[in-house]
Each structure stands twice: as structure tokens, then as C-alpha cells.
TrEMBL record:
<dbReference type="GO" id="GO:0030170">
    <property type="term" value="F:pyridoxal phosphate binding"/>
</dbReference>
<feature type="binding site">
    <location>
        <position position="146"/>
    </location>
    <ligand>
        <name>substrate</name>
    </ligand>
</feature>
<feature type="binding site">
    <location>
        <position position="281"/>
    </location>
    <ligand>
        <name>substrate</name>
    </ligand>
</feature>
<dbReference type="InterPro" id="IPR015424">
    <property type="entry name" value="PyrdxlP-dep_Trfase"/>
</dbReference>
<comment type="similarity">
    <text>Belongs to the class-III pyridoxal-phosphate-dependent aminotransferase family. BioA subfamily.</text>
</comment>
<dbReference type="InterPro" id="IPR049704">
    <property type="entry name" value="Aminotrans_3_PPA_site"/>
</dbReference>
<feature type="binding site">
    <location>
        <position position="53"/>
    </location>
    <ligand>
        <name>substrate</name>
    </ligand>
</feature>
<dbReference type="InterPro" id="IPR005815">
    <property type="entry name" value="BioA"/>
</dbReference>
<feature type="binding site">
    <location>
        <begin position="113"/>
        <end position="114"/>
    </location>
    <ligand>
        <name>pyridoxal 5'-phosphate</name>
    </ligand>
</feature>
<keyword id="KW-0093">Biotin biosynthesis</keyword>
<comment type="subunit">
    <text>Homodimer.</text>
</comment>
<comment type="pathway">
    <text>Cofactor biosynthesis; biotin biosynthesis; 7,8-diaminononanoate from 8-amino-7-oxononanoate (SAM route): step 1/1.</text>
</comment>
<feature type="binding site">
    <location>
        <begin position="317"/>
        <end position="318"/>
    </location>
    <ligand>
        <name>pyridoxal 5'-phosphate</name>
    </ligand>
</feature>
<dbReference type="GO" id="GO:0009102">
    <property type="term" value="P:biotin biosynthetic process"/>
</dbReference>
<comment type="function">
    <text>Catalyzes the transfer of the alpha-amino group from S-adenosyl-L-methionine (SAM) to 7-keto-8-aminopelargonic acid (KAPA) to form 7,8-diaminopelargonic acid (DAPA). It is the only aminotransferase known to utilize SAM as an amino donor.</text>
</comment>
<feature type="binding site">
    <location>
        <position position="412"/>
    </location>
    <ligand>
        <name>substrate</name>
    </ligand>
</feature>
<dbReference type="GO" id="GO:0005737">
    <property type="term" value="C:cytoplasm"/>
</dbReference>
């Protein structure tokens, strides 16, 4: 492994990393994956508790998906998607619309989450230009939002850690304060939430609605913000006000979609249909980069005209509609159906919750444990009473991450939030191992 690590560090710049860290903590070179485990060149196994950045659904090297990919690779690897089409793309669209919120009917393809966000923003902007609402040029997004790394997606993102330095390049976004249930200033006992925090969004929309093209939001779960979870009431109110002021609602289901929150899409909790729904990550069960922007007819119709009116959406990516990705996505949806994944996850989610709650009782640094479906998060704080967070420079999460890796679990915390988002094939025994290691690592770090 050492040799490969040296060769890696000669040329490779790893994502979301300070490469200097790799001097003392070189990259773990993975030889193979099986189920919830990744295995390195020395044969050491790591339980992938974060589904390799929230993409993996049915385990690494899943036989059904491997076979679907192999079958497709032997037929067609890629073809231009302008004026051409293929069965995997057609089948994928039919299948995904069966499980999407009612009222969504047209689909544009991208090749990763950020590109789906760019597409939705551009479509919303152009839509309003073409229906005679040319003043609607601005976007609304929440504090702590995360929508990707390309300049448009970064502009709507609210995590300063990622976008502060790029401010001069980004477009101006209206940014109301988002929900913060753990430190909720409205309901200290947190028993009677009516999404009072929506007042910030309401105020922003009432004040600027004539200029607003769309609100983009991560439904119910702000992952990169630290697995922040909030009430469906917020989404219901948002849908209502967007309807009232002719504002598009873009649901970024890139991380929350495909069963992570306990339903196929998080929007289902609020029984709303967004105007655009962006999906990626779990779409291909962690196999290939692919994304979709699923939208209502009214958007598509506003672009449908003679070519010379210049109403076309002249956006493309070379790998748009890649058949390998589509075939894998079709098989992913087949697995959801054949194996009744959403219902099976209910029991697994309960087991994760029980397993964590039993073990964290005596840790004085646990601010809260929150869970939504197959996502569980422990927020560590300096002081339980005041909820004072640790200084990010202490890198508490990073130290715990390193301890847990030694013990065979890949956690990759978000700051001081240690979270679990495992592949759905995880067994009860593996859940116990994952939570044991996480809690032991926390205790070891705090010398408890
Ligand atoms: C909610 C959300 N939107 C967009 C993205 C960007 O997706 P990608 O990393 O595929 O560009 C992410 C990635 O984590 C995400 O969590």
C-alpha cells in the first residue's frame, strides 16, 4: 500500500482536503468493496457508514447492478443525446416518474448534482424571461444550504466554509435564516413546532417577490450543514407562498432522495410537488455520475416553440443521458420495488436509533441525537446546557474520524457532527459494529 500511497501523492489532489494533512495521514488505497465494506490493499476492512459521500444504496459491488452495467456495456456505452435517444433513458424516465411527486412529467439530464442545480436555476430564470416576467431574475436559498460546487450552485449555497472566498464571482442571492431545530429560538421545549422560523422566508418573499425567480431548498434535511433536520410544515408553507407569488420551488433532493429520509423523496412528508426536483447520488446507487431535473409541464411548455423564437434551452453536457448510468439507475429503481426497500428501511432506521441512544447516554458532550429515516446524527457540544459548539479549529470530528478508521469504520464527520448514513444493505450486526465503533471513538477522544 505504501508504494501506491507515494505514487498517489505525487500527482493526485484529493477533493475537500487539505493536502498537507496527507503528510501524516496518507490516502487509504482501496482494493475492493463488498456490501457495506471497503477493503484496502492490506486487507483491512472499513464499514462505509457514509455510503461514500451519500451515494451508495445497495452496497459496494452489488451483483444486480454489476450485471445491469455489464449487460448495457455490451450493447451501448454512450451516444449523443441531441436528436438521439436510447431505451435505458426512456425506461428510466418512465420508472422515476412512477415514484416522483404527482404533477412532475418532464425530465432534463445532467451528470452530477451540481449540474442538476445549475440546470434548474437556468431553466427557472429562462422560464420567467419567456413568460413575460423578466424582472424575476433572483434566487432565494437558506443559510447553511448546500447545493454543490460549481459557481451557480455555490452561489445558492450558504455554507461560508466552501464559498466565502469566491464571493466576488458569485451572483447575489436572497438568504433568509433557515430552520435550526437544535437551537430553536421559538420553542425552547421543541414540542409545539409550527415552523415559526418560516417568518424569515415569508418576510424575504413578501419584500422581493417581484424579483424572485425561484426558491431552492433541501427538503427536510440540510446534509452538508451537519445533518440539520426540520419540519415538513416549513415546506408546506413554502409551497403555498411560492404559489401565491408565482415563484418556482426547486427541491434539491440530491442527498435526501431515494429513501434516505424514510420516504422515496423527502417532499412526500409535506405532500407537496415542487416545480423542479433535482436528483443524483442515489439515482445510480453510487455507481456512476448521473443527475436528473424533473419538472412540471408548465416549464417545458414555456420553451416549446419554433426554433427561430430562440426559446430552446441550449444547455448540454457531453455525457448527457449516458446509457450506462441510465441502465444502472433503472436497475436501482427495480431493486427499490422488488425488494421493498423503503419499508424494510423503517425497521433498520429504528434499530439504528435504538442502538445509538443506548450508547450515548453517559457522554456529556452529546448535544443531541437526531434521526430522519436512514440518517442519524450526533451533535457534539462543549456544554450540553448552553449548547456551545466546539471551535472548528479544534477539529474534534476529524480526530474522531481518524480513531474510528483505525477501528474499521469510515465516518467522515461534518465538523462536530458524527453521523450515520449507511448503505441500505446494512445488517443489524453491522449496525451494532458501526455504532459501537463511533461511540467508542468519541469516548476515546474525550478520554471517557
Ligand atoms: C443537497 C445537495 N445538493 C447538491 C450536491 C452536489 O452534488 P455533486 O457533488 O454531485 O455535484 C450535493 C452534494 O453533496 C448535495 O448534498
Amino acid at each position: 500500500m505504501k508504494q501506491l500511497q507515494e505514487r498517489d501523492l505525487k500527482h493526485i489532489w484529493h477533493p475537500c482536503s487539505q493536502m498537507k494533512d496527507y503528510e501524516t495521514f496518507p490516502p487509504i488505497v482501496i482494493k475492493k468493496g463488498e456490501g457495506v465494506f471497503l477493503e484496502d490493499m492490506n486487507g483491512k476492512k472499513y464499514l462505509d457508514a457514509v455510503s461514500s459521500w451519500w451515494v451508495n444504496m445497495f452496497g459496494h459491488s452489488n451483483q444486480r447492478i454489476n450485471d445491469a452495467l455489464y449487460r448495457q456495456a455490451n450493447k451501448l456505452e454512450h451516444a449523443i443525446f441531441a436528436n438521439f435517444s436510447h431505451e435505458p433513458a426512456i425506461e428510466l424516465c418512465e420508472k422515476i416518474l412512477e415514484v416522483s411527486p404527482k404533477g412532475l412529467s418532464k425530465i432534463f439530464f445532467g451528470d452530477n448534482g451540481s449540474s442538476a442545480v445549475e440546470i434548474a436555476l437556468k431553466l427557472s430564470f429562462q422560464y420567467h424571461q419567456q413568460i413575460g416576467k423578466s424582472k424575476k431574475t433572483r434566487f432565494v436559498a437558506l443559510t447553511d444550504a448546500y447545493h454543490g460546487e460549481t459557481i451557480g450552485a455555490l452561489s445558492v449555497s450558504g455554507c461560508e466554509l466552501y464559498n466565502k472566498i469566491f464571493k466576488p464571482l458569485m451572483f447575489d442571492v436572497i438568504r433568509p435564516t433557515g430552520p435550526d431545530c437544535f437551537r430553536c429560538p421559538y420553542n425552547k421545549d421543541r414540542k409545539h413546532c409550527d415552523a415559526e422560523c418560516f417568518e424569515h422566508m415569508e418576510k424575504a418573499i413578501i419584500s422581493d417577490h417581484e424579483e424572485i425567480s425561484a426558491v431552492i431548498i433541501e427538503p427536510l434535511l440540510q446534509c452538508a450543514a451537519g445533518m440539520k433536520m426540520y419540519s415538513p410544515i416549513y415546506l408546506k408553507k413554502l409551497r403555498e407562498i411560492c404559489d401565491k407569488y408565482d415563484i418556482n420551488l426547486i427541491a434539491d433532493e440530491i442527498a435526501a432522495g431515494f429513501g434516505r429520509t424514510g420516504k422515496m423523496f423527502a417532499c412526500e412528508y409535506a405532500e407537496i410537488t415542487p416545480d423542479f426536483m433535482c436528483v443524483s447520488k442515489g439515482l445510480t446507487a453510487g455507481y456512476l455520475p448521473l443527475s436528473l431535473v424533473i419538472m412540471k409541464d408548465k416549464i417545458y411548455d414555456a420553451f416549446y416553440d419554433d426554433y427561430t423564437t430562440l426559446k430552446s434551452f441550449l444547455h448540454s453536457h457531453s455525457y448527457t443521458g449516458n446509457p450506462l448510468g441510465c441502465a444502472v439507475a433503472v436497475e436501482t429503481l427495480n431493486i427499490f420495488k422488488d425488494e421493498d426497500i423503503i419499508n424494510k428501511n423503517i425497521e433498520k432506521a429504528r434499530y439504528i436509533e435504538k442502538s445509538v441512544l443506548e450508547k450515548i447516554k453517559d457522554i456529556p458532550y452529546v448535544g443531541e441525537y437526531r434521526q430522519l429515516g436512514m440518517v442519524g446524527a450526533i451533535e457534539l457540544v462543549k456544554d450540553q446546557e448552553s449548547k456551545e459548539p466546539f471551535d472548528w479549529k479544534d477539529r474534534v470530528g476529524y480526530q474522531i474520524y481518524k480513531i474510528a478508521l483505525e477501528k474499521g469504520v469510515l465516518l467522515r464527520p461534518l465538523g462536530n457532527i458524527i453521523y450515520f448514513m449507511p448503505p441500505y444493505v446494512i445488517t443489524k450486526k453491522e449496525i451494532d459494529f458501526m455504532t459501537d465503533v463511533a461511540i467508542d471513538s468519541i469516548k476515546e477522544y474525550f478520554k471517557l
